[in-house]
Amino acid sequence: MIKLVGLVPLLPLVGFLIIGFFGKKLSKGLAGVIGSAAVFAAFAVAVGIFFELNGQADKSVTVPLFSWITAGKLSVPFSFLIDPLSSLFLLIITGIGFLIHVYSTAYMHDDEGFSRFFAYLNLFIFFMLLLVLGSNYLIMFVGWEGVGLCSYLLIGFWFKNTAYNNAAKKAFIMNRIGDLGFLLGIILIFVTFGSISYHEVFEQAKSYATGTPVLTAIALLLFVGAMGKSAQLPLYTWLPDAMAGPTPVSALIHAATMVTAGIYMIARSNILYTLSPDAMSVVAIIGVCTALFAATIGLAQNDIKKVLAYSTVSQLGYMFLALGVGAYTGAVFHVMTHAFFKALLFLGAGSVIHAMSGEQDIRKMGGLKKYIPITQMTFLIGTLAISGFPGFSGFFSKDEILAHAYEHNKVLWFVGILTAGMTTFYMFRLYFLTFKGTFRGTHEQEHHLHESPKAMTIPLIILAVLSLLGGLIGIPEVLGGRHFLEEFLKPVFEDSSFRLVHHLSHNTEYILMAVAVAVMAGSIWYAYKTYVTDKTVPAESEEELNPLHKLVYRKYMVDELYESIITKPLNFIGEGLHKVVDNQIVDGVVNGCGYVVNGVSGVIRKAQTGNIGFYVFVMVISIVLILFTQLF
Amino acid sequence: MQISINWYLLLSAVLFTIGVLGVLFRRNAIIIFMSIELMLNAVNLLLVAFSSYLSDSKGQVFVFFIMAVAAAEVAVGLAILMSVYRNSKSTDINSLNKLKG
Questions:
Q1: A301, A394: one domain
Q2: Domain spans of chain B?
Q3: Nearest to A620 among B20, B93, B100 (CB)
């Protein structure tokens, strides 16, 4: 199966080409079937690869496909690297990708751009697979840019709406800022190690001393790329706006897969980070700050997708916290469980929006439990999983991150647990406001309420099962498990793990878990009291909010801040350049040429009298003059 | 008696100058045409004179070519003149100033 790895990205690419070129001629059903089948076939191959890799001793297989770039010292083969990390990501991408394709066949059914949507989704899957499969940084970069492009295309999918287009452009431009850092990082890697293939770079990096400045520089530059792609402070503002895209896109790209590319990249380059503790501290601090910052914003949002978007930013911050404290397995574990429950929550939100005829404001929902029971059940499971309810998948991954954070630095742990409490609160706030109480929407919406079709509910149920049970592959030793995931990923992180010693006593771990569960229970209770017992509904108008609440509701005015400190000055400079350099200097030169030619010819044309005698006279005089100058 | 080459040169120069002055100062197109022919033949004379002086027949061969070309040129030139005359009822070159810039 490993030999067939080329098929994994190829199938979605073929799907894209077929749907992209013949989309107009295909019926809607056929376009959906081709798109989903391509991803399902890729998933089947990925499963085969996973089991074959798990069964064999050699845990890192490079499959060369063809020679790609050879120029001077640089030689980049186009080859794929199969190891536990990439095979796990393959499963996540193709598995969840397939479920979301199926969901989309129903969700997008009435959209005129149906086949275009599936073409983009397949293209996205192709680039994402390229990103995780590449055996060197350049292939990763190609995938990295490709998913950015697909993200742009899908956020602006309904391109007739200017606001959506602006959101798409914002996402693209902010990502570009990060990509610059990533590209510089790759260049610095090439300059330092003379190669960009993972094997050679990591092999050489091992011989460097801990804290070598160039490694820190590389690690920080790569992290700038991750900041953009994975929506970390200060480049996170595009992700909440990206919710302009169709909901399945939010679930697939902006929750489950693309935004975790930054985590994948750092986990892949773990040795570079392990050897530069300063860079790791930066990663941890940015991660934990983002987690807290986004969680506080999430507390006050009223748009169902915005809450989930900030929650995604916050959870991504969690993963970076894990990377920053050296819990690479924990980060990958959380990527996986997060992919399950966040995809579930987004798809659930999509189902709610579908039932509510397009309404996204949770103030207008309420009491949906009896109308859409399957969505409600699965949404509840997702909410419990993200809150870290014992036994659910989020519990194990979050607990692992927090334990490592505690051991590394108690402040990080404290902020982490605070964020966890907030996460629980806003997720239950969302849940209670949506499904409990009485219906607050219009009569027409109430009349129209209905459960979604099977193509939507079945993916929800599968994801709910995964969210419930996904944690079982990572039960820590302290709870009597054997942490299959850690065993599985060991070959990838072994060079890092002996440099980072982990030991917490079992008692401490029990206490940490108890604290986490207590915080979660407290948050659920508080949310229940506020939104169910007291039946509080967020204020209709902004004026009724107190100043702090208003500030949070307005997302700390970060967008306005960026607008005034970056966009406005840039526009001002641009305007100045336009008025002075472009209008005066450049146009001056161009117009000046015209004026000079005009003026000179105005004088010269007077010589063209039409008098032939005069012409002949001038000719003779000229010949005589030429002869004279030639002869004497 | 051998006539020295200088005389030929002188005659040729005089003929050529008459031709140039005729082109410059006469306004009748036919006269100008004749002046041009005069200049051509001044050159022909020179070619023949040098041919004989240097005992090289190339110059005389060349003259035949020039005469043939000149005959063709005269045919074309006179045809142009005819059509000019039909249009403007005159052969005064000062009336031909329609291309004035």
A1: yes
A2: 28-90
A3: B20
